[in-house]
Specification:
The complex is a heterodimer of chains A (377) and B (303). Chain A is of the alpha+beta class and 377 residues long. Chain A is built from eleven helices and 21 strands. Chain A folds into two domains: 236 residues, P-loop containing nucleotide triphosphate hydrolases (Rossmann fold, 3-Layer(aba) Sandwich); 112 residues, no CATH class. In chain A, the strands form four sheets. A six-stranded mixed β-sheet of chain A has the order 6-7-8-3-9-10, with helices on both faces. A six-stranded antiparallel β-sheet of chain A has the order 13-12-11-14-20-21. In chain A, β16 and β17 form a beta hairpin. In chain A, α2 packs parallel to α6. The longest helix of chain A has 18 residues. Chain A is elongated. With 303 residues, chain B is mostly helical. Chain B folds into two domains: 89 residues, no CATH class; 208 residues, MetI-like (MetI-like fold), CATH 1.10.3720. Chain B has a two-stranded antiparallel sheet with strand order 1-2. In chain B, α7 packs across α10 and α13 packs across α17. The interface between A and B is medium-sized, with 24 and 16 residues.
């Protein structure tokens, strides 16, 4: 299929820089997600990749062919839009055949009535291809309906079908699940991953939802302020973020951040408690990030907070703990059994393993240890 | 049950006043219409003496013209309705006029659409230098009354040797700024994603206009079509200016003149019959497309 290289892409809208020299290398058959908060430039990057928008500088290379100045249709990419963008006046079948008609037929063959008569072969092929794709997506029964008569999920499938019929080099998806209800969104995530495995095609997927990025992608690129902050496998990004911003954006509930003071001797003070932190060699204020699942309820825990809110998700209970010296409550993931023993307003003692601690300097950059931290009990 | 019914029929002063005013307004609008239909049904003496109510006595009367041609008086007795309507068709080539009207209005509308859709698309969806200025010019042109530029237009057509042709009736109206404006407003509501999808599917900008924008704009085009067809079907002013001699090019409203100001006086019966025949196609079209028409009006925000 296709290897895509984005090289030093820059884009400004008026005086506002939207993309500041973004480079990204996407391997053949990879599912890459561009994830970031709204306004970070991820959609613009996708549109530049598709050719719908022109970059101010930089190159787009697909399979070693520089396509920077090539118009969208000639890049042989397919795009699925958030609003699906189906042609409202055409039936599902006609919608799916449109890219084929535009690519494979001459203007004469495209003419209504006359076209199908003089070019029976091509028209039959097109219908065959469309119905094959419809079968894959299980929308054969909808082929004669208009988009207005379809539900959101069905429209989503038709939009996918329209992208699939012409067997593009890569699929570009711009928040395709955002207009679906929650249950269907979760279902479609699995289905998109399945589709990716089956087609073995390159997928570039834009979303603001970190859960979609974590669940579906082979690699994800976290974008903020017009720049890619970190590219890597979902696990890598989640467990080993490069910056505080990435750590905060990925993960739900968000990572807990605690102000701390590095001592310069391999220890740091967090809320009055000393933790080994070999990554710090100088005295400086730092921020410690700990994921909710790494905070453990413990009788002998050295931290304690008041339970202000309980979020019961069935399998897990998230406890929101208010602590002196912290503006934001800490979120702690507990099992339902443990959480049952703690009522609202109670004091809960907890602790965490220093190995689970992510330490960031004052600028938000990650401080990494050369040797893993061990607590000297 | 009866209580509920009493509730639903409760007298409402506000609504009653509104309807009273609307009824008076409707009567004022319908009165000339009533006169037109009534006169087209009555005999000449009833029209002159203003007798006979709405449809007249429908007694046969003597057709003076027929007598003048040397026929026996008893052979020239005619029924008013038949006389009025048959004279309308005999004295003037009304079918020809109706056909002219059809040719002119349809040509104008088709060319207006051919011009307005690409313009509106560019103004609504393409980014280019000076777009806002061009759109401001379009708005400015909306303010120019036809009559203000009639004379220059006439002189240009005359210099080009086009007076007394279909071209003179059609060309001045082919660029409709109102059409451009209306369609531009409609295209603004079409999501950009749809256009981007079409571009991804390999359509050129013109293909997008005719294959995507045109079909989605049918309701707006219907509204514009009604405005355009009604205006040019009923137009008396412009055809009167550019069609001076050739009766074969008369549009239906010009046909009305055939009955006016002859030496033997105005012949109101056939004249009103002609008027009835001229307005009928529009009324039939309106009745057929009533729902679309109201949709279109609401859509364009015109009232």
């Amino acid at each position: 299929m296709a290897r895509i290289q984005l090289d030093q892409i820059e884009k400004r809208f008026g005086d506002t820089p939207v993309l500041k020299g973004v480079s990204l290398d996407i391997q053949d058959g990879e599912f890459v997600t561009l994830v970031g908060p709204s306004g970070c430039g991820k959609s613009t990057l996708l549109r530049i990749l598709s050719g719908l928008e022109a970059a101010d500088s930089g190159r787009v290379v697909i399979d070693d062919r520089d396509v920077t100045g090539v118009r969208p249709a000639d890049r042989n990419l397919a795009m699925v839009f958030q609003s699906y963008a189906l042609y409202p006046h055409l039936t599902v079948a006609e919608n799916m055949m449109t890219p084929l008609r535009m690519r494979d037929l001459t203007p004469v063959q495209r003419m209504p009535v006359v076209g199908p008569l003089i070019a029976r072969g091509p028209h039959r092929d097109m219908r065959k291809q469309a119905s094959d794709v419809a079968e894959t997506l299980k929308i054969t029964a909808l082929m004669d309906r208009k988009p207005g008569q379809l539900s959101g999920g069905q429209r989503q499938r038709v939009a996918l079908g329209r992208a699939m019929v012409r067997k593009p080099l890569a699929f570009l998806m711009d928040e395709p699940l955002s207009n679906l209800d929650a249950a269907l969104r979760v279902h479609m995530r699995a289905e998109l991953s399945e589709l990716h495995r089956r087609l073995k095609a390159t997928f570039v997927y834009v979303t603001h939802d970190q859960a979609e990025a974590l669940t579906m992608s082979d690699r994800m690129a976290v974008m903020m302020h017009g720049d890619i902050l970190q590219v890597g496998a979902p696990d890598e990004i989640y467990l080993d973020p490069n910056t505080l911003e990435v750590a905060r954006f990925i993960g739900s509930p968000a990572i807990n951040t605690l102000p701390a003071e590095a001592q310069g001797d391999g220890l740091l003070h967090v809320l009055g408690v000393s933790k080994p932190a070999p990554m710090t060699t100088t005295r400086q204020p730092v921020t410690v990030g700990v994921r909710p699942e790494h905070l453990v309820l413990k009788e002998a825990g050295r931290f304690s907070g008041t339970v202000r809110h309980r979020e019961n998700l069935g399998a897990d209970v998230f406890l929101h703990l208010e602590m002196a010296g912290l503006q934001q409550p800490l979120v702690l993931r507990a099992t339902p059994q443990d959480a049952a023993r703690i009522a609202l307003g109670d004091n809960a003692a907890f602790d965490f393993d220093p190995a689970d601690m992510l330490v960031f300097d004052a600028q938000g950059g990650r401080l990494r240890a050369t040797t893993p931290a061990r607590e000297v009990a | 049950m009866s209580e509920a019914r009493a509730q639903s029929f409760r007298f409402n002063t506000g609504a009653a006043t509104t309807h009273a005013i609307l009824i008076v307004g409707a009567l004022i609008v319908l009165l000339p219409f009533y006169t037109m239909i009534s006169l087209s049904l009555k005999a000449p003496h009833e029209i002159m003496q203003q007798t006979g109510g709405f449809i007249g006595a429908q007694e046969a009367f003597r057709d003076d013209y027929c007598v003048k041609l040397g026929n026996a008086a008893e052979n020239c007795m005619v029924n008013p309705i038949i006389y009025n309507y048959s004279t309308a068709f005999e004295k003037a080539p009304l079918v020809r006029y109706l056909l002219n009207g059809l040719i002119v209005t349809v040509s104008i509308f088709v060319i207006q659409v051919l011009v307005a859709l690409p313009c509106a698309y560019a103004l609504a969806k393409l980014r280019f230098w000076g777009r806002e200025a061009v759109f401001a010019l379009v708005l400015f042109c909306l303010l120019i009354p036809v009559h203000a530029i009639a004379l220059p237009l006439y002189i240009m057509l005359a210099k080009a040797g086009l007076t007394n042709t279909y071209a003179a009736l059609i060309i001045p109206w082919t660029i409709s700024v109102f059409g451009i404006f209306l369609m531009r407003q409609f295209f603004m509501t079409v999501p950009d994603d749809l256009i981007d999808a079409a571009r991804m599917d390999g359509m050129t900008e013109f293909a997008i206009i005719w294959r995507v924008m045109l079909p989605t704009a049918i309701p707006a085009l219907m509204a514009f079509g009604i405005f355009s067809v009604v205006a040019h079907w009923n137009d008396y002013f412009w055809p009167r200016i550019v069609i001076t001699g050739n009766r074969d090019l008369f549009t239906p409203p010009l046909g009305l003149r055939e009955f006016k100001g002859d030496a033997d006086g105005d012949n109101f019966g056939p004249m009103m019959a002609t008027a009835c025949i001229i307005v009928t196609p529009l009324i039939v079209c309106f009745l057929l497309a009533q729902r679309r028409f109201i949709e279109g009006i609401t859509l364009s925000g015109m009232k």
